[in-house]
């Protein structure tokens, strides 16, 4: 089993996704590569030696020594405020990984894919979408992206671009934009029935988001007849940022 080690990582660029989230691109010398869906540990060390550590999903497919993280600012957090408000190009921290081997998509798979993301749970799913596009894959993808309101959309411009074989459906829970027929509400059975794949298609389902969202989505997929072994979940809860 490969031993994970801490590696120095230098921030080379960043871009705002929303008012409270941004994507940071790091160069990590010696990075072994990663699979879409994996995550990394991030460690900050203060001048007095105090350390703070958090885990974040990787947003990009493997690309040499580059690692992209999209981070939401958690109020009163120890790590996310620094990453989203303070860190600038040239600054350094430490990254360890990649971590995880179950919640991953491999491009050799030929099964249709259903991605169900809640809030910042879109991040590892976006890595899968980008990996498919980069490989020129023909496997059909469907993304159901649940979020509070349009202002919280990550990767908004990228997801608007035509991407043959990728269907994107937005599901708003608090405030829906004008012209959208679906009212703002939580994820429902009919959302997955209409926007997902029929169980008979034997799709691989990836669900990521807050614990309550993930549990509800997985239960709905089971109710629709999807096989348990085809439903892969990744959840997160309050961590202090």
Automatic annotation (TrEMBL):
Residue stretches in coiled coil: none
Stored InterPro entries: Cbr1-like_FAD-bd_dom, FAD-bd_FR_type, FNR_nucleotide-bd, MRET, OxRdtase_FAD/NAD-bd, Riboflavin_synthase-like_b-brl
SUPFAM superfamilies: Ferredoxin reductase-like, C-terminal NADP-linked domain (SSF52343), Riboflavin synthase domain-like (SSF63380)
GO molecular-function terms, A-Z: 2 iron, 2 sulfur cluster binding; oxidoreductase activity
Co-factor requirement: FAD
Top-rank taxon: Bacteria
Keywords: 2Fe-2S, Iron, Iron-sulfur, Metal-binding
The FAD-binding FR-type domain, residue ranges: 4-105
Protein name per its UniProtKB record: Ferredoxin-NADP reductase
Lineage: Bacteria, Bacillati, Actinomycetota, Actinomycetes, Streptosporangiales
């Amino acid at each position: 089993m490969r031993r994970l080690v801490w590696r120095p990582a230098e921030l080379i660029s960043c871009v705002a996704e929303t008012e409270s989230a941004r994507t940071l691109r790091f160069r990590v010398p010696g990075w072994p590569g990663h699979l879409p869906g994996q995550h990394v540990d991030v460690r900050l060390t203060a001048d007095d030696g105090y350390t703070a550590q958090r885990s974040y999903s990787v947003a990009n497919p493997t690309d040499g020594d580059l690692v992209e993280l999209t981070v939401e600012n958690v109020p009163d957090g120890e790590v996310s405020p620094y990453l989203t408000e303070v860190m600038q190009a040239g600054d350094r921290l430490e990254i360890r990984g990649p971590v995880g081997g179950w919640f991953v998509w491999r491009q050799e798979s030929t099964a249709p894919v259903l991605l169900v993301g809640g809030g910042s749970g879109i991040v590892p799913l976006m890595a899968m979408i980008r990996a498919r596009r980069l490989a020129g894959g023909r496997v059909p993808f469907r993304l159901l992206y649940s979020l509070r309101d349009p202002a919280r959309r990550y990767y908004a411009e990228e997801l608007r671009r035509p991407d043959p074989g990728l269907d994107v459906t937005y599901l708003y829970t608090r405030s829906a934009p004008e012209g959208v027929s679906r009212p703002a509400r939580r994820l429902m059975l009919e959302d997955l029935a209409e926007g997902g794949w029929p169980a008979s298609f034997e799709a691989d389902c990836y669900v990521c988001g807050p614990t309550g969202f993930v549990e509800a989505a997985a239960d709905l997929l089971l109710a629709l007849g999807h096989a348990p072994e085809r439903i892969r979940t990744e959840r997160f809860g309050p961590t202090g940022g």
